[in-house]
Amino acid sequence: VSELQEWRPVIYRKCTDTIWLLLFCLFWAGLMFISGYAVLAGAAERLVLGYDSFGNICGRKNTPVEGAHLSGLDMTNKKYVFFLNSCSLEIQRLKISSLSLCVSSCPQEQLNSLEDLQSFARNNGSFLCVYNLNISSYTLNPKAAQLCPTLPVPPSKSFPLFNRCVPQDPECYSKYASVLISIVNEMDVFHRILSGILAGKDTVIGLSVLALAFSLVLVLAFRFIQTLLVHTLIALVVFGLLFVSGVLWWLYYDYRNDPSTELETEKENVKFLLGYAIFSTIVTVVLLSLIFVLRKRLQFTVQLFRIVGKIIGRIPFLLFQPLWTFLILIVFWVFWVAVLLSLGTAGTAQSTSGGQVEYRALSGICYMAWYHFVGLIWTSEFILACQQMVIAGAVVTCYFNRNENSPPPHPVLSSISVLFCYHLGTAVKGSFLITILRIPRIVLLYLYNTLNQKKNAKCPFKCCFCWFCCQESCLRYFNQHAYTTTAINGTNFCTSAKDAVCILARNSAKLASISCFGDFLLFLGKVFVVCFTVFGGLMAFNYHRELQAWVVPLLLVGFFAYLMSHSFLSVFEVTAEAMFLCFAIDMETNDGTAEKPYFVDQELLTFVSQSNKLTEGQKHRSTRSFQDNEDGTELQPMV
């Protein structure tokens, strides 16, 4: 029971939620089995290196397939995939109808005749016709038109990652990219995202690095925050919101009135720009209104971040936690994608009547893919939960330390050791609850896109999606406080969550307004990173209009910028939440006497007292105003 809880950081702990840790280990044993099966049965190199229509993987020696006489060729010097009809690719049962060959080099100039193909083969040693057609027969064989590429052959360039000859003509490239991506996924949005990324991958990478730099600068700024810096941040956010909204509206009118807008992807750019402009304008109005309403609490926010910065100053390694977490997540995501590629290419080669080769997927792959997908969500959430527990444990160690002149040595390392020795099961259980709410959201999103044509189906899906989003946000909030309680008392997840809820319920009036405005300023910091990253993207993509579909990748860049800023600024958020929970516990279990002195720092105690006085004063003025208005009514009693 919460009232009987000692509320002291325990030294001698015991393992919590051990059963959940064992379940997680068993789950990962299943993931390892799927990974091993994918490596043995799959052929990720077939997807990465590319293969021709006869089952030969480009860039390596091949084994023959029974019934396909052109299989089993040595393609060591032929590293690029070339489609004979690259400008008119079609999909039939998720297969490209055009023949594909392995070639040693892609044509850099347009080839208009069979003589040009013959000359290109002799000069470059790259044969663009079917393997069994001799170079001298290019202009003599009556079937050369069916065995050689469709004329004219557009100039193409090899894509460095997937070794495909990509046509450089804008319209041809647009069709080529969308068809290739259609094989990966049938969702139209997915097509356009990947096609835009393929077209502007250098710009996307550059903008992602810019978002990372903005996030690091903002973290350092919040660490050494001063009053002028808060005003500067708010001014930059206001300027960024107004400027980005104005640029979006200007680009929308510029694109809409451009007579050269003919391609379907360009017309979709105009629609996306209109949606972005409307959304940006609404966000600008809402945030500017909130900034105006909350302007009087600006000085208290400065004090709040000064106190949080003081705690982080005692534990400077907390600032590196997001970087370590991000690197671990990147390694895991790379591993997950590699296994997914191998799993997606697990199949047996079978020859068709025309001598070509098709790969048939093995049974049970779909169920393995879903299991693998759940592993992505659960493991990612587990890694983030570990970060939260490490930060909370370090803050708890420093808060409940009476001797300020002798701070605890290595609080971050101590928190990590406590987590790995005792409380991994608690992190597993908390992350599993998030996963349970995440999976229905993703399933609903998939069904919503599948039933997008049916208007009657939209409203229920949107309502359910919003409900799950709200549930997940609330659960994340309580999970964080449960982790902090576990770091203090060493109790399991359910007991910690119950104790944390009881404490928060009794102290919500004292801490809610302080915590909310601190979170709001951190949110403004995230908006600052997103605004200026998106502005850089608008300028970069607008000067490369030949990339066609660039508006959707811009949205992806904005999402990545928000994710990066959230990862780094979450240090301040988790530190503040843990500090306020420790403060509430301190106020309930101690009375400031010699027998039960407070652990709280005097600056934090003064800050909370002043903030509560301001809140009570505003409530009192509101009540007085209401009573004055009551005095003027005709229901006032006669004296």
Automatic annotation (TrEMBL):
Q: Which Pfam families match?
A: Choline_transpo
The transmembrane residues are 20-44, 204-225, 232-253, 273-294, 315-339, 382-402, 520-541, 547-564
Return the GO cellular component terms, semicolon-separated.
plasma membrane
- Keyword Magnesium, does the record have it? no
Q: Quick one: where's region Disordered?
A: 616-639
Q: How does it sit in the membrane?
A: Multi-pass membrane protein
Keyword Transit peptide on entry = no
Q: Name one GO molecular function term.
A: transmembrane transporter activity
What keyword terms does UniProt attach to this protein?
Answer: Membrane, Transmembrane, Transmembrane helix
Compartments reported by the entry: Cell membrane; Membrane
Please give the function described in this protein's UniProt entry: Choline transporter.
Give the similarity note: Belongs to the CTL (choline transporter-like) family.
Q: How is this protein named in the record?
A: Choline transporter-like protein
List the source organism: Atrichornis clamosus
At the highest ranks, the source species' classification is: Eukaryota, Metazoa, Chordata, Craniata, Vertebrata
Gene designation: Slc44a3
